[in-house]
Amino acid sequence: MVNGTSEIWTEKYRPCKFSEVVGQEDIVKRVEALTNALNIPHLLFAGPAGIGKSTLALIVVKELFKENWKENYLELNASDERGINIVREKVKNFARTKSLGNVNFKVIFLDEADALTPEAQQALRRTMENYSATCRFILSCNYSSKIIDPIQSRCAMFRFKLLEKKDIEKVINRIIETENLTINPESVELLYEGSEGDCRRCINILQSTASVSPSITSELVSTIISSAKPKDIRTVLDYALSGDFQKAREKLLDVMLKQSISGQDLIKAIQKEIWNLPVEPEIKVKLTEKTGEIEFRITEGSDPFVQLQSLVASFVLAGLGKE
Fold it and tell me: What is the CATH number of domain 230-319?
């Protein structure tokens, strides 16, 4: 959900075929081959959010079972239901029954499996072993390192990558054409930067923007995602590097208060802009290190106004050759 808009478009534009999945071509080819053989192993999908893990699992199930897919498929979100009782009861009861149709097994999809407790993972390990004849598991996680080794060894692992701009652009163009919207290249760039490779987030931002106006502009996108404009950040840094701390501070506070940008979002914007500054590479490295330190302090609960002013002071010192 983004700014009060439900994920209607996320479901509406979810791929229904292997060929419609963007950005994971190698993985899709291998998973499609396994699915066509009607005998998939246990699968482990690992990678960041919003890049197609759950969608690919759903496509596999629909391709395997066709119209009977709902009767042969159980989906659980492990972040909500992650205790050992869920594995012992709900998962086990579903896994021990025979499937309907021509395929000899059912499929259980455990989303966010890395949120399962260690005890639940140990119970799951035995369930996967005992009921492999009647059930296959598809596990989805952000961090495969949080999945115990015995489960990893029982699964064919697929590591998903963040979507590139060209992949996000394909999805955006399909939605724009279907919904009769208009968009310019600058707005597409902002949507990609705002989503950070997360297709679900990109679609939600686009839906929120389209609810305001059918003409998608960069100003509207910036307002929806509440991100600082690069030119404003560059102005702050230029003032600082020229030695004018007062103007840099005033512009920084103006961006934070009038545009309602959080301290952490500003830190990210500053970090991106550092590498465009006309200073020596050694200074860029030092400023990046300082930015990381300030970001950690803000995350730990320090006052963002004070910490960001401290960061601006570091840029002033760097501009004066004293950093």
Answer: 1.20.272.10
Q: Tell whether the model's pLDDT for residue 323 goes beyond 90.
A: no
**Fold topology of 24-159:** Rossmann fold (3.40.50)
Q: Judge whether residue 232 has pLDDT over 90.
A: no
Q: Which of 156, 169, 141, 140 lies closest to 22, judged by CA?
A: 169
Q: Which carries the bigger pLDDT value, residue 28 or residue 96?
A: 28
Token pair 């296959």 in the structure block, residue:
136
Residues 142-166 have a mean pLDDT of 91
205 within 8 A of 4, measured Cβ to Cβ: no
Q: Quick one: average pLDDT of 58-76? A: 89
pLDDT, one tens digit per residue, over 169-185 is 999 999 999 889 898 88
What per-residue string of b and e applies to 229-266 under the rule 16 or more CB within 10 Å gives b? beebbebbbbbbbeeebeebbebbeebbeebebebebb
Q: Where are the beta strands (DSSP E) in 33-105?
A: 42-46, 73-77
Tokens 């419609």 found at: 20
What SS3 state is found at 101?
coil
Tell me, what DSSP letter sits at residue 7?
A: S
